[in-house]
Amino acid sequence: MKKFITKNGTELELINSSNKNFNILVIGVVHGDEPQGRDLIRNYLAEEKNSNLGFIPILNPDGLILGTRTNANKVDLNRNFPTSNWIGGQKDSYWGGKEPASEEEIKFLINVINIYSPKLILAIHAPYKVVNYDGEGLIFAQEISQITGYPICEDIGYPTPGSLGTYAGIEKNIPTITLELDENKTINELQPSIFRVFRYLETLSL
Fold it and tell me: Would residue 1 count as lying in a domain?
């Protein structure tokens, strides 16, 4: 797979420890001020040496370093996907970019999706404590809701033009789960239930 380098020079990383094709993709740190996914994925892979899941621990490394929702170009990556409802909008923390898929991070993720054709995508966010889904993801959302204790929320409550859920879940028919964690809990507190989510995903035959 071709290399994708962020504005600040970081190479984006896909991890599949089993060295096999994978059917489920897990994504952390879409927004740089939501670091929980990185730590949960890294800790899980330290325990699970032969996972059959594909992981992108940090989609937005520049934003993570800067401590910002957006990437180094000040684009909200979850508004930059090439969807039918994409809009650039105002240059605020929800800016969708100068054009759809303008950002290297989104080009990278689209490339991963095109090459590996995942049958399910899980994106880890914070802080709303809900399980959101797009497309035919309800059955997976129900199981994840039972594991985490978070309610299922089909609509996050505000418009998300150019989002991963619209791009993958609705327009590409890949069930897509957005798992919104409790930002007030430590990684050690979150870990037991999120590891159970990962292990549930490991059992799926899709």
Answer: no
